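Progress narrative, Year 2. Work on Molybdate-binding periplasmic protein from Psychrobacter piechaudii advanced from sequence curation to structure prediction during this period.
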Amino acid sequence: MTPYLKLIISLPALLVLASCSGTDNTTKADTVSDTNANNGKAESAKVLRIAAAANLAGVLPAVIEAYQAEAAHNKDSQNKDSQNTENLKPKIEVTYASSGKLFAQINSGAPYNLFLSADQAFPAKYAQQQATNKSTAQAPFTYARGQLALYSSNHDLSSIKTLDKASLQQLFITQPKASRNTVKITLANPELAPYGASAKAFLQQQEVYDELNDSKRLIQAENIGQAFQYTHTATTDYGFVALSQLISAKVEPSKYLALQPESYPAILQDGIVISDHPKATDFSQYLQSESAQKLFADAGYLPIAKP
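Result:
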C-alpha cells in the first residue's frame, strides 16, 4: 500500500479521535463550571443575610453574638473533637437601612434571608404579596417594641418632667421666639421609617406639628439612624430618636427624655423569613427567646406581649 493511500485511510480515524478529544474537553469545562457554581451556592447558603431596620444597629450585634456563641457551644457539645469553636459559629451579614428602603430592595430581588422591620406593616405587606403570587411564606413575628425619646446634644432637658403640649410649646416655640432663635427638630421620614411616623403622630396629638411644619422647623431624615446623627452632631437642635440609640451611644441622661409609651402609636417591630435558608427560621425563633428579649430590654426596648 502506498504512503498516499495510507494517509487517506487514516484521516477519518484521526478526525474521529479529534472529535472525541474535543467532546471530552467540553465536558470537563462544563463540569468545572457546574462545580464552581455549586460551590458558590453552597458558600452563599452558609451566610445568613439579614435586612434590618436602622434602629437595630445598637442592639442586633449583641444579639447575633449571643446567638452565635450559643450555636457554637451546642455544636461543640455534639462534636467533642472540634478544636476551633470560631468555625462553628453561623456566619451572619446585616444591612441596616429604613424599613421602606429595605422593603423596596427585597421586592427588587435583593438576596436577603430575613427581614427585620421597624414596624408591622412591611412584613405583613410582604406576606400578602407572597399569598397573592401563590408563593409559600412564613407568618410575620413580633420581636421588639421600640421607644421614642427626645434628644438634644447641646441642650439640658433634665428640668422637663414630661413631654406634653405645654412643654413642647415652650421648648420649640415660646423660648426660641423670646431669644430670637430658630430651632430645628429632626425626625425620620414618616413615609419610610416607623419611628418617624410615630414621632409625627405624637406631635400631631400635642397639636404642635402643623405650626412646626409650616415654619419649616422640622427636618426629615431618611431613617432613624440619620435622625440620630443629625441630632448627635448638633446639625439640628432636637431630634426624635430611638431610646436604644441613646443607650448604645451612652448619652448623658440629662440630654434626653423618653416619651410616655401611651403618648404615641406603639412601635411594634415585626420580622419575616423570606427564604428557605436553614438558619433564618432558627434565628427568628432566637429573637423571641428569653435571652434575646433581655438583651432588647437592656438596650432600651419595651417587652413584647407573649403570643
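Residues 169 and 233 are 24 Å apart (CA to CA). The two ends are 93 Å apart (CA to CA).
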